[in-house]
Amino acid sequence: MLRGAILGVGQVALHGHVPGWLSREDVAIVAGADANAERRDAFRAAFPQASWYDAAEALFERETIDFVDICTPPASHGPLSRLALDRSVHVLCEKPLVLAPEELRGLPALAAERERVVFTVHNWKHAPILGKAAELVRSALIGDVRRVRWETLRERPASVAGDEPNWRVDPSQSGGGVLADHGWHALYVIQQWMRAAPLTVAAALETRKHKDWPVEDTADLFLAYPSASAEIFLTWAADERANRADIEGTRGRIRMDGGRLALFGAAGADPIEEWRFPALTEGSHHPDWFGGVIGDFFDEIATPALRGRNLAEASLCAHVLSLARESNRRASEPLSAGRIAVPVSKT
C-alpha cells in the first residue's frame, strides 16, 4: 500500500485524478494541501480519513508519504518537485513539469541520489485513439515516418472553477499561452512516432483573437528531424474544438480526424482500414486516461531500470518549447536543438 498526498485540489485533481486514485486498492491518499480552504470539503468528500493542510510545507513536515500528486498551476511544479525529492518522496506532476529547461538543472541527479521517481502526467498517450496510432507506427505498416502534421483547435482555453482567475492566461503562472498549454501534449505524443530527437526548432507565436490576454493564442511550430519533419499548429482562436493528425511514412500514412483513425497505403486514396474511438475533445480532464498514467508511474517506482524514461520525455518537451519561444523572438529563425536525449519507448 503506497501512501500519497495531493498538492493542489482544483478541477484537474478532483475530476481528472481523484477517480483514478479511488479505483486503486494499492493506494491510500492520506493528505491534501491547497491554499484555497474552500476546496477542503470536496477533497474530504473523496477521502474522509485524509488530513488537510493549507501549505505543502506543513504537509511534508507532518505526514509520512511515499509520493505526491502535484496538481497546482505550472509555476509551482518545479519548486514542489524539488521539495518532495529533498524529503525522498516520489513525484507525480501535471504537465508542464517545469516552465523552462533551467528548472531541470540538477533534478535528474537529485532523483537518482534519493532513488526516487519524477514522473510527468503524459495522459494523452493513454487516449485509445493515440494508443492505436502508436501501435500502427510501431508495426511499420506505413514504413519509416517522414512527416507529421498535428493540429489542436480550440475556441478558448479550458476554464477554471467559479470566479477564480484563469491561470492559463497568466504568464507568471502558466509560462505562456496555447504553446505552454497544448504544445507539451503535442510534443510527447509526436515523439513516440519519431526515432530521433529534433535537430532544429522554428516557431511563430501570435494573438489572433483574444487581444486582452498577455499571452499568445496561436502557435505554429516546425521541427526538423534527421529523416523526418513535424508541423504543429495550436490555437485558442478557432471556430471549432478539434484535433487532427497526419503521419506520413515511406509505405503509407495514418490520418486522425476527431474520433476517426484511418490507415492508407502508399498510393491509395481510400483507407485500407478504419477505426472509431472517443475523440480527444470528448471531455477535458480525462479520468479514464489517468489510470494508465498511474500504472506507468508505479512501474517506474517498482522497477528502477525503467526510471528516467518519462523524465527524458519531459526534458525534451521543456527544451523544445523554450527553443520555440526563442525562435519566435528571432522572427521564426530555425534554432539548433543541440543534444537532446531521445526518450526510449516502453514497448
Q: What is the N-to-C order of secondary-structure elements (H for helix, E for strand)?
A: EHEHEHEHEHEHEHHEEEEEEEHHE
Low-confidence parts: none
CATH-wise, what's the superfamily of the largest domain? Dihydrodipicolinate Reductase, domain 2
Q: Strand content of the residues, in percent? A: 15-25%
CATH architecture of the largest domain: 2-Layer Sandwich
Helix/strand-derived class? Answer: alpha/beta
Largest sheet: 9 strands, mixed
Rg computed from alpha carbons, rounded to a whole number of angstroms: 20 Å
Number of helices: 10
Strand order of the largest sheet: 14-13-12-11-7-10-9-8-15
* Anisotropy-based shape: globular
